[in-house]
Amino acid sequence: MPEGHSVHRIARQFALHFVGKQVQASSPQGRFAEGAAQLDGRTMIAARAVGKQMFLEFDSARFLRVHLGMYGAWDFAGDITADASSARIGQANQRGTVVGEFEDSLGSIGAPRRTRLRMSEQETLAPEITEFPPAPIGAVRVRLLTDASVADLRGPTACEVIDPPQVEAVLAKLGPDPLVDDPGEGERRFVQTVRSKSTPIALLLMDQSVVSGIGNVFRAELLFRNRIEPHTPGKQLTEEQAVALWRDWTHLLATAVEHGQMLTMEGLDEEAFRRALSSQADRHWVYKRTGLPCRICGTGIVMEEIGGRKLYWCPKDQA
Fold this sequence. Notes:
Elements (H helix, E strand, L loop, with lengths): L3 H14 L4 E5 L6 H7 L2 E9 L2 E6 L3 E6 L5 E8 L32 E7 L3 E4 L15 E4 L3 E6 L3 E5 L1 H9 L10 H12 L6 H4 L11 H10 L13 H21 L10 H9 L23 E5 L2 E5 L6
Antiparallel strand pairs: 1-2, 1-8, 2-3, 3-4, 4-10, 5-6, 5-9, 6-7, 8-9, 11-12
Helix pairs in contact: 1-7, 4-7, 6-7
Enzyme class: lyase
Protein name: DNA-(apurinic or apyrimidinic site) lyase
Organism: Lysobacter korlensis
């Protein structure tokens, strides 16, 4: 499932190439025909990501809310920018950088070009297109088209047209997002919520009403980086531990938006950094390393299921 950084990067792609432009909306597969008709011919005026939720605002107070879920993805094509992380959304303004040709990374950045880019959990760049707009591929739920760019959505968990009160109702259920909320207020809300609950911290970090945007990868890596036993009830964390988790999440999220990768190992030399960008196996401390020796103490990494999702952790360093 795409985690928070992916959705922020997608919103920035819309900010660069769709906001301020009149959009033709359609539903090639037919399942979103009524919703597309409400957006067709309208101007997109804003694009916003909050955690794993994205809101595309159109004139006449209509919003397209999208949650990609496990299988959703946006395909962009036409005159698009391969890395949109430098676009400003909300209070964030990270500068995008991609180094070389890496697994699941973009091949280039900079000026727009006629290409095809898939953005979901990972980002992949396809060969340049030969005609515009390209024909829809697969079951496209909704197509958004301008005179120069097109975005195709397939496989989302949620895709609906809503009004401002409905947007506020969705936002009210979400925990703070470091790239959207005031940093001090976001930290206060997170710490207060976590330390009031008896639920294991491993479950709290995946609860989008507690904190927005964290998924399975970041959950495992945050707990390891902060040496926290995953089953610890939230209310047993010290204030210092809870603050450290929030600030580490703030840092990792910004880094992931910058690089387009969930890069959670730091202090790497140049060669190790290149390996980390090119291969998931060299990118994380514990995620998907079941049975392999801990990179710190050598103890075998444990995998268990909690809340229906896989959890990876070191039973010694996180004891």
